[in-house]
Amino acid sequence: MPALLSRFLRPHWLALTAALFAGATLIDYLHWDARAYFWLKEQHLSKGERDASVWLPGYNAVLQAKLLEGLEDDETSGLTYNPLSGTLFTVTGKHPLLVELSRQGEVLRRIELLGFSNPEGVEVLGDGRLAIIDERTRQLTAFALSDVAESIDARDLESFDLGFADAGNKGFEGIAWDERHQRLLLAKERSPLGLFSLPFPGEEGAAGVMQSMPAGHLFVRDLSSLTVDPRTGHTLVLSDESRLLLELDEQGEPLSFISLIGGLNGLEHGIQQAEGVAMDEAGDIYVVGEPNLFYVFRKDPT
Fold first, then answer.
1. Quick check: is 19 in a domain?
2. Residue 4 placed within a domain
3. CATH number of the domain that 60 lies in?
4. Which residues of the chain have a pLDDT value below 70?
5. What is the pLDDT of residues 218-246, one digit of tens each?
């Protein structure tokens, strides 16, 4: 009888063991254990601490999955807000374009990017210039954009080599301007992922030395995009693979986060491949997801 029972239970124990192993692997891959721990930590922050931060759990989607018209055959990546014009900019990779958007997700104009191989990030600098990261060539290119420009040629502009020659398609994707410290923040996607700072002075000056930044305990699989909240100086980090938006304080420590899966924070459906994030002076958060979808998150005033 024991032998018969053993033969009966063996396949069930094997299936249970396999299921437990698969579950543990998934939890480790998605960092769900770290998320659960950090969620509990979030609950103990005081109202004053929350009010002094971006506090992402207070945000909800107010516009979601809006199609960026005319970009159906391409993939948007990176996003930045221009306070001078009150508009947003993103870049596309298949057919390199710089695209200006309204804050309602309307395509205002498209500028051809010549001499760019794989533009992945875009940012408005403090002096109004735009900076674009080309992930494949590891180049950062800054330029002034006129109101009537129809094309930008990287071969006519000064570029800065970001290094990591062996990074391939796992290089720098995120870029953000830190007004308080007059520097660029850069995010290396993965293998390994990391945050870096780069002093970037005026148009006639040379870029400084890029330095690694403390990044706390980031429970994400990759880094897709960055933006800096001009009010608090905190950095928002977007992770495509982890479907997370994470707030870091000025010491690089996680402070709050929201998940980008469906059913949470007003999202009817999850953002499948979030590739760009930006924030305006009012605190509204904008996200673009591949191939060409646009989202707006707004904080509940209550």
1. no
2. no
3. 2.120.10.30
4. 1-44, 167-170, 201-207, 215-216, 302
5. 889 899 999 999 899 999 999 999 999 99
Is there a contact between 264 and 56 (Cβ–Cβ < 8 Å)? no
Q: State residue 99's pLDDT score.
A: 98
Q: Check: pTM over 0.70? Answer yes or no.
A: yes
Q: What pLDDT is attached to residue 23?
A: 42
According to the model, what pLDDT value does residue 300 have?
Answer: 85
Note whether residue 30 is domain-resident: no
Q: Which domain holds residue 259?
A: 46-299
The tens digit of pLDDT for each residue in 135-172 reads: 888 899 999 999 999 999 999 998 888 887 775 666 79
**Does any domain span residue 253?**
yes
Cβ pair 159, 207 in contact under 8 A:
no
Residue 229 to residue 112: CA distance in whole angstroms: 29
pLDDT in the model for residue 73: 83
Number of domains in the chain: 1
